Amino acid sequence: MMKKNLESLYKPVQYLGAKRRTLDTIVSECRRLYKKESYVVDLFSGSSLVSQALYLNKIPVISNDVMKFCSDMSACLLNVEKTNDSLSLLKEAIKGVSLCQIDSDFIEPFKDYIDNEERLIRAKDLNGLKDLYSQLPVISNEAIEPSEQVKYIREHFGKEAFNSVPLITNYYSGSYFGIKQSIRLDALRCYIEQNYIVNHDSWVYTALLTALYSTLSTIVHSAGKHFAQPIGITDFDKNKITNIRLFENRSYDVDALFIGFLKDIFAKTGNLKTLQPCISTCNNVQDECFAILLEDKNISVIYADPPYTAQQYSRFYHIPEVVRYYKYPQLQQHRGHITQGLYPDGKFKSDFCSKTKAKEAFRTVFNLVKKTQCSFVLSYSESKKDATGNERMVTRNDILSIAEEFIPNYKSKQLRFDFDYKQLNSSAKVVHDKEDKEFLIIFEKR
Ligand SMILES: C[S@@+](CC[C@H](N)C(=O)[O-])C[C@H]1O[C@@H](n2cnc3c(N)ncnc32)[C@H](O)[C@@H]1O
Fold it and tell me: CA within 20 to 30 Å of 225's CA: 252, 266, 313, 316, which one?
């Protein structure tokens, strides 16, 4: 890929396993195998970087991920359903950001906390902040009587939260985000929905959502900027790195960030045209409906970057997914208590992250390739220290023998990259003498 193009990519969120370093090779292999007037399918699009890079090379892409927020990001960055009015509607939407508000009755119970939080952040008072957060009337606070808002939520699990008791504030304030920040995030989420109801512009909708995901990803107070666990205040040393980060993260102005991201999206998406418009879908690649969706498309290459470890993406990215659907989630409990990560109940569990199910999951992918008879480009990462590191659910040999079963008429080659794979594990489990290797396995018809 040309350097200019790499700089043109919009990195919407900090995404584990996002393909940055191998991007050039992935794109050049896909370009080599791509046939005119066809599609390249990005089966597990995640942050959308690969889809974007292909698109910038004028290749029409079908981008897919089982997580809805991922398919929103692709839809936005691949200009899906962008109309002639979209850019002016987006400009209008930007103007309305500072005016959008949630009902003051919902803010009232948080008012004193917001003022105190601001003062304590300015004074860098860790003790005070810890104390303040311990009293906050959020759904996970089991030490206090439930507030009216929490009682309402408990009676409305699974129901939409638009223009009602603010979801983000009642679930994630005082942990992942600040209190004032959460109120603004709720206001923006409701504003985005309202804007869609008024204008019906799908591209603007995904652009606004993408900017919101970027905002969540920037301000979240967690290790690695994912949403697996908020960092609590356990130490009162102001020079401790997590405490320095706490003040940094809590000081972000949500509206300013959101508008900045929208302007960036505005500048980077441009008006690039491909022969046929790109498609963004949200499917489990194992579902029959996904195979049906691909059936009538002319596909020359499938690219796949599935998860290889037991770590579920739905756990690391549950918050953008909850914010997308904006329905009050029932929270998962462990030994009778809500988990620290505030995970929703019934998160999607990928078969690719299960030792017993991963091989069968790969069979469905190879079956898609067999049916389409297209070329197949597969990213693989290998941990040398399987016993102690991030154990892989399938080995390279497993993959090669499944390929032999489904596409014996294909030849394969492997490209190996020499750099560390970013581990998806908690720091305690990370193998420090990382020796992970990343590969690209390319299958093409003989
Ligand atoms: C390694 S990440 C992809 C990263 C992506 N290539 C990038 O550059 O950001 C794997 C993705 O697979 C998705 N996923 C996991 N199981 C899936 C399934 N059964 N069907 C579709 N997507 C799935 C996850 O949500 C995650 O976004």
Answer: 266
Q: Which residues line ligand 1 (CB under 6 A)?
A: 15, 17-19, 44-47, 49-50, 65-67, 70, 284-286, 305-307, 313, 350, 352
Tens of pLDDT, residue by residue over 265-311, are 999 998 777 778 999 999 999 999 999 999 999 999 999 999 999 99
Nearest to 249 by CA among 176, 171, 341, 166: 176
Residue by residue, DSSP assigns 227-287 as SS-BPP-----TTSHHHHHHHHHHH--HHHHHHHHHHHHHHHHTT---SS--EEE---TTS
In ligand 1, the atom with minimum distance to the C-alpha of 317 is: 25
Q: In whole angstroms, give the CA distance from residue 229 to residue 215.
A: 17
3-79+272-306+354-445 CATH choice from 3.40.50.2000, 3.40.50.150, 3.40.50.1820, 3.40.50.2300? 3.40.50.150
- DSSP code, position 201: -
Contact between 220 and 175 (Cβ < 8 Å): no
Residue 207 CA to its chain's centroid (Å): 14
Pull the structure tokens for residue 104. 């003051």
Query: What confidence tens digit (pLDDT) does each residue in 153-172 have?
Result: 999 999 999 999 999 999 99
Ligand 1 nearest atom to the CA of residue 67, by list position: 25
Ligand 1 pocket test, pick from 66, 217, 351, 382 with the greatest ligand atom count within 8 Å of Cβ, gives 66
Domain boundaries, the chain: 3-79+272-306+354-445, 86-268
